[in-house]
Automatic annotation (TrEMBL):
GO terms for molecular function: aldose 1-epimerase activity. Pfam families: Aldose_epim. Keywords: Carbohydrate metabolism, Isomerase. Belongs to the aldose epimerase family. The keyword Transferase does not apply. This is Aldose 1-epimerase. InterPro entries: Ald1_epimerase_CS, Aldose_1/G6P_1-epimerase, Gal_mutarotase_sf_dom, Galactose_mutarotase-like, GH-type_carb-bd. It comes from the Bacteria.
Length: 221
């Protein structure tokens, strides 16, 4: 368990926020992440996990773009040139953002303006199955389909980021990563939620409430 206490006014945010994150490894090859937070003043809270995944191994020479991905989602949030979502979600149907059927990430990469300005996928998906840790919302497979990873969460959204700007980041072998070496599947409230009236994505935590959400990454051989 990790704990962080952010005092009132830290980084400009109100309230004394006490945050705990618990990581649990299970016998079914899952990594469970449980987030808990409380505050003494109303304050925005949106916690996520920014791990990168490459199921071939980061030294395999394979990029994350050759992975297979499926996401249960009918809408995504298009963004402006600095990554802030537009006012309304858009349907994924008949676009390169549709992962309801499993496909390679590279199959429709950089085919529209949304992807070109982000240099790949860096967009939030509105999840169809949510609020239930037992419901799978996404599934990732290695290029040879010998290793898989499913994602389940209580959160309403998930950011898909294909490592578009990883080049130059140090790796553990003394070298550096290239772009697209790994991808992130970040379960969360929708980006820019404090400034929007999105019913499913209220990020304001109040003193009488507890922030309590969970995400599970389950590896399948």
């Amino acid at each position: 368990m990790f704990e962080l206490i952010s005092e009132d006014g830290d980084q400009g945010f109100p309230g004394r926020l006490v945050t705990r994150v618990i990581y649990t490894l299970t016998e079914d090859n899952s990594v469970n992440i449980d987030y808990r937070a409380s505050t003494n003043k109303a304050t925005p809270v949106n916690l996520t996990n920014h791990a990168y995944f490459n199921l071939s191994g980061d030294d395999s020479g394979e990029t994350a773009l050759e992975h297979w991905l499926q996401i249960d989602s009918s809408h995504y949030l298009p963004t402006n040139e600095v990554g802030i979502p537009h006012e309304m979600p858009e349907l994924v149907s008949e676009t390169s953002f549709d992962f309801n059927r499993t496909k390679r990430l590279s199959s429709e990469l950089l085919v529209n303006e949304q992807q070109v300005q982000a240099k790949g996928y860096d967009h939030c998906y509105l999840l169809l199955s949510r609020r239930d840790i037992s419901s799978r919302v996404a599934a990732l497979q290695s290029p040879d389909k010998k290793l898989g990873m499913s994602v389940s969460t209580t959160m309403p959204g998930m950011q898909l980021y294909t490592g578009n700007w990883l080049a130059g980041t140090p790796n553990r072998n003394g070298g550096t990563y290239e772009d697209y070496t790994g991808l992130a599947l970040e379960t969360q409230f929708y980006p820019d939620s404090p400034n929007r009236d999105w019913r499913e994505s209220n990020t304001i935590l109040r003193p009488d409430d507890e922030y309590s959400h969970s995400t599970r990454y389950c590896f399948e051989f």
